[in-house]
Amino acid sequence: ILNVEQSPQSLHVQEGDSTNFTCSFPSSNFYALHWYRWETAKSPEALFVMTLNGDEKKKGRISATLNTKEGYSYLYIKGSQPEDSATYLCALVENNRLAFGKGNQVVVIP
Amino acid sequence: ETGVTQTPRHLVMGMTNKKSLKCEQHLGHNAMYWYKQSAKKPLELMFVYNFKEQTENNSVPSRFSPECPNSSHLFLHLHTLQPEDSALYLCASSRRTGWGETQYFGPGTRLLVL
């Protein structure tokens, strides 16, 4: 079973501040990495699918980078807003299925 | 709205009950999934269906029985569950199975087994 580590597990951010967090994974046999955003009482929502080393993807104020050689992906939130409060899930592809991390729980303080 | 609905949203059942969870997707997808999330654990894949055929059973106990009558509907039949089966059960769908495919999730059913 693929070990997908997300850190920190939770973080509090002041509104307007930028923040980032990490998804770490074994660098061998990499196929793809997915990021999802999961607000409380809602459905997890796909953010990015990343496949190539050096990939950078952006959606509004949220962006992600990928380093497959060293086995990590960063997710950045620029100018955090209260609506960014959610758990951000990272998932790696293993045997054609998604192996999820426990998530990064972000709370933006107004 | 992701286009994937789940009913009921909450369910309380006794260990001797039989109940079913329902999932429906309106996205024209061909693959559907059941996941389980227990407290402080990652999302855990249970079953995968591709074009109505079960392609994955992730060593799930037989008290959980999935059914996929067509590509739009997925059920999870529950029978003689244990308290440790209390969790959030999420359904997802994708165009097809495959490592690059984005999965679209429902909001989940919060299950409590007494």
What this model shows, in words?
The complex is a heterodimer of chains A (110) and B (114). Chain A is mainly β and 110 residues long. Chain A is 0% helix and 55% strand. The mean pLDDT of chain A is 94. In chain B, strands 2, 4, 5, 6, 9, 10 and 11 form a seven-stranded mixed beta sheet that branches. The model of chain B has no long low-confidence stretch (mean pLDDT 94). Chain B starts with a strand and ends with a strand. The interface between A and B is medium-sized, with 24 and 23 residues.
Secondary structure blueprint with pairings:
The complex is a heterodimer of chains A (110) and B (114).
Chain A: E1 5-7, E2 10-14, E3 19-24, E4 33-38, E5 45-50, E6 56-59, E7 62-67, E8 72-77, E9 86-94, E10 97-100, E11 104-109
Parallel strand pairs in A: 2-11
Antiparallel strand pairs in A: 1-3, 3-8, 4-5, 4-9, 6-7, 7-8, 9-10, 9-11
Chain B: E1 4-7, E2 10-13, E3 18-25, E4 31-37, E5 44-50, E6 53-57, E7 64-70, E8 73-79, E9 87-94, E10 104-105, E11 109-113
Parallel strand pairs in B: 2-11
Antiparallel strand pairs in B: 1-3, 3-8, 4-5, 4-9, 5-6, 7-8, 9-10, 9-11
The run of helices and strands of chain A is: EEEEEEEEEEE
Count the beta strands of chain A. 11
Count helical runs of chain A. Answer: 0
**Structural class by secondary-structure content of chain B:** mainly beta
Question: What structural class should be given to the helix and strand makeup of chain A?
Answer: mainly beta
The run of helices and strands of chain B is EEEEEEEEEEE
Strand content of chain B: over 45%
Described by strand count, sense and barrel closure, the largest sheet of chain A is: 6 strands, mixed
Shape designation of chain B = globular
The assembly state of the depicted protein chains is heterodimer
Helix content of chain A: under 10%
Q: How is the biggest beta sheet of chain B arranged?
A: 7 strands, mixed
Low-confidence stretches of chain B: none
Radius of gyration of chain B over all CA atoms, rounded = 13 Å
Could you name the ranges of chain A where pLDDT drops below 50 across 5 or more consecutive residues?
none
Any idea what the radius of gyration of chain A is? 13 Å
Give the number of DSSP strands of chain B: 11
**Overall mean pLDDT of chain B:** 94
Span between N and C termini of chain B?
31 Å
Average pLDDT over all residues of chain A = 94
